[in-house]
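Aim 2 progress update. The chain analyzed this quarter is reproduced below.
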Amino acid sequence: MSTALALRSFNWVSPPGQTIKDLMLMKNISHESLVQNTGLDSETLIKIYSGHIELDKGKIDILSSLLNVSSSFLINRQEEYLKSKNEIIDTETKKWVSTLPVNEMKKYNWITDTKDSTNECLKFFNIKDVFEWKQLSNQLLSGTNFKKSSAFESKSNNIITWIRQGELEASKIGNNNSFRKKEFEENLTEFKKITRIKRPIDFLPELSKCCSEFGVKLVILPTPKKCSISGLARVTNDGSAIIQLSFRYLSDDHFWFTFFHEAAHLIMHSDTKLHIDTDHKEINQIEQEANSYASSILIPYDLEKELPRIKRNARSILEFSAQCNISPGILVGQLQKRELISYSYLNNIKKRYSWDDIQLGINKIII
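Predicted structure tokens:
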């Protein structure tokens, strides 16, 4: 949607082209007559009517003569329109900035910490004004397999901000390989051994390297407040893929299940849309497919049938997780998800992380 059309659609201010159309109607001058006598083609005149093209002095002189009005009238009308339009854009853009998680964007150094954040936010999204934002956000959310969390309130602008920063981070990764889905799927089981590496400073660079081999860019980013996102998966226009994770619960079981869940989306649903995953409990078919795929990778079928018979103690958990080639914390999480143990039991086996730990791992990823 252009700025002019957006302004018209909200009845805020009409472009001078509307005045020209009114004068044509009053003086019984047809569009075809204007085309013949102005030297302007039909498409140009239509854009003038709608405000897509601003009136310069040459066009004003031609039109004022044919419409029998003074040039100063159309010049004043143009100036009035531009002044009103700019005031409206400025007001609406400031309102828009107030809906963004600006404090966290500054905290995470996504934008520069200045008093006037408007230009910083416009640069961040690579847009000219709030009306371009409306188009960008509508396109993004309309093409997204997205569900809001039942446990946390989510704001779509905060989610879009997180997605945008992920795009910026992914663009820094020197991996121009196209996503090789078949090879990624064939090798995904091998990724499980990385789950047994204890520290983010060691496993995040290794995970990123393994993903990169198959054209997948791994992005780890904290979320702003009111952005209850665990991860997303998408194939970009350049043919590469992105897995973006928030490390939401700072635990190994949640992080790794989310990773394999997003990997499942790339393998099973990469030809559909951007997939954003939250904590929502109402799971649709696509999410169920990704959950099942991730679970089958982590605990193969031949071992899954043994789960109900595992003794509920640390030693048995450690032994069985070694058989599955996954971290013990993942096994605890899977037992909890399957309601084989309570969510309060054996949580001490899970690995817990701080963002300082995670940031060290992010910093070690070779860009």
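The two ends are 36 Å apart (CA to CA). The CA atoms of residues 27 and 270 lie 58 Å apart. These observations will guide the mutagenesis experiments scheduled for the next reporting period.
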